[in-house]
């Protein structure tokens, strides 16, 4: 009997005891190919010796020093490493321990920025349908995922959701990608104009949608228009790259491929690759200076800038760079996408196969013609996962919001070290 409040009711999951590259090994010696990186986390696989040594070395020196008293070498080095690789407007790294904390931090940065700037009426957050931004209350409040919100509605602050950029389900008739992208981006302008001027603080979006819509990249031009609208109305653009960032799509940040830069970007999963819990919100110098001119950020978690976590994440990022792993991401991604299309492209229950980099998904439908989704999403996910695990394969079935507007999908996000053979 386990005393853990496990994620899913029912049978206990297998006990993981070891890692070996892209494999996790359970107590009985069974090997599971981690084709989803857990949930797009384990970008270096499970037994990287350089990261292990970095954790040990830092642990022998200093595990933790509270950041209200000290900074630390690994925290400073990691921030410098990251800032050198972000667009030059993004200069300040606020550390956290995971994705939800990164999103909460971004929301509070946006809000306090406007308070400090003398625009206290700016408190509205606009986000998108079919989005997932985390499990904490602020993150749930802006996430467009009906069943995750439902039990907690009375606890959530009010936010506004516009349509996602989700061409498989949203593009109409003979609309081109460009027309479609502009149409859905312009919903942001419509929402801003529908409110009293100067009341919207930020627009939040996943650059490539992860867990709720299933590795959906934006169409060309969508984020350029979003950036324009945000600039025109003085609204901050927060891109949530907790899942899609840190190399997952073939560039360090997914937004690089859109030709724009946000005011705040959130990162987490690929940052520490699962070797340590760590995340960050990276913001502009202007946000940092404005908040500091008002006495500093009224926010901060105990474990922010944890020395061992920072040492691990720094080594993860150095390994990715030293071993040129983003090149592998791009090369294997092409092969993965071709193979998925070849193998499943004509399957009667496959509606769409899409993604970017090593971040791909197969959308499942009950009826291909009408794109009708399955109704019993959670049951379907459980069956897929059980069958895959029996065969020694980890995939991540998710999505499906029971309102008929989105399908279920199987997310694939293998480690960047994965080979074609694997
Ligand atoms: N934002 C996005 C885009 C995510 O995909 C997730 C997790 O899947 C989160 C935020 C929340 O991250 P965490 O589970 O580390 O709190």
From TrEMBL:
Tell me which stretches of the chain form a coiled coil.
none
Alphabetically ordered keywords of this record: Aminotransferase, Pyridoxal phosphate, Transferase
Query: Could you cite one Gene Ontology molecular function of this protein?
Result: transaminase activity
Q: Which lineage do the record's taxonomy fields give for this organism? A: Bacteria, Pseudomonadati, Pseudomonadota, Alphaproteobacteria, Hyphomicrobiales
Q: Name one GO cellular component term.
A: cytosol
Needed co-factor(s):
pyridoxal 5'-phosphate
> What PANTHER family does this protein map onto?
AMINOTRANSFERASE (PTHR43094), AMINOTRANSFERASE CLASS-III (PTHR43094:SF1)
Q: Which SUPFAM superfamilies match?
A: PLP-dependent transferases
Protein name in UniProt:
Aspartate aminotransferase family protein
Give the matching Pfam families: Aminotran_3 (PF00202)
Membership in a protein family:
Belongs to the class-III pyridoxal-phosphate-dependent aminotransferase family.
- Provenance organism: Rhizobium lusitanum
């Amino acid at each position: 009997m386990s005393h853990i409040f496990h994620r899913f009711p029912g049978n206990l999951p297998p006990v993981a005891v070891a890692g070996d590259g892209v494999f996790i090994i359970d107590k009985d010696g069974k090997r599971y190919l981690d084709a989803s990186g857990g949930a797009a986390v384990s970008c270096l696989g499970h037994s990287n010796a350089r990261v292990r040594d970095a954790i040990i070395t830092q642990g022998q020196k200093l595990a933790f020093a509270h950041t209200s008293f000290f900074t630390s070498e690994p925290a400073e080095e990691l921030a410098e490493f990251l800032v050198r690789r972000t667009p030059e407007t993004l200069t300040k790294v606020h550390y956290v321990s995971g994705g939800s904390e990164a999103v909460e931090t971004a929301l509070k940065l946006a809000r306090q920025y406007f308070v400090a700037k003398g625009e206290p009426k700016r408190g509205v957050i606009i986000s998108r349908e079919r989005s997932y931004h985390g499990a904490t209350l602020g993150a749930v409040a802006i996430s467009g995922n009906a069943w995750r919100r439902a039990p907690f509605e009375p606890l959530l602050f009010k936010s506004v959701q516009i349509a996602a950029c989700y061409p498989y389900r949203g593009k109409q008739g003979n609309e081109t990608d460009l027309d479609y992208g502009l149409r859905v981006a312009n919903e942001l302008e419509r929402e801003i104009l529908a409110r009293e001027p100067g009341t919207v603080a930020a627009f939040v979006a996943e650059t490539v949608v992860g867990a709720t819509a299933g590795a959906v990249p934006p169409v060309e031009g969508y984020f350029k228009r979003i950036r324009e609208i945000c600039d025109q109305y003085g609204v901050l653009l927060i891109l949530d790259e907790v899942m899609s960032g840190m190399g997952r799509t073939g560039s360090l940040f997914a937004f690089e491929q859109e030709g724009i830069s946000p005011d705040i970007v959130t990162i987490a999963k690929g940052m520490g690759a699962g070797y340590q819990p760590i995340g960050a919100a990276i913001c502009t110098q202007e946000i940092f200076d404005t908040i500091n001119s008002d006495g500093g950020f009224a926010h901060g978690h105990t474990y922010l800038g944890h020395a061992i976590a920072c040492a691990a994440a720094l080594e993860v990022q150095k390994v990715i760079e030293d071993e040129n792993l983003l090149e592998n991401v791009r090369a294997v991604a092409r092969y993965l996408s071709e193979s998925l299309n070849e193998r499943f492209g004509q399957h009667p229950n496959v509606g769409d196969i899409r993604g970017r980099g090593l971040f791909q998904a197969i959308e499942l439908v009950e009826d291909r013609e009408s794109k009708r989704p399955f109704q019993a999403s959670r049951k379907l996910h459980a069956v897929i996962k059980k069958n895959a695990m029996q065969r020694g394969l980890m995939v991540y079935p998710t999505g499906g919001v029971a309102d008929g507007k989105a399908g279920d999908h199987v997310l694939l996000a293998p480690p960047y070290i994965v080979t074609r053979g694997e």
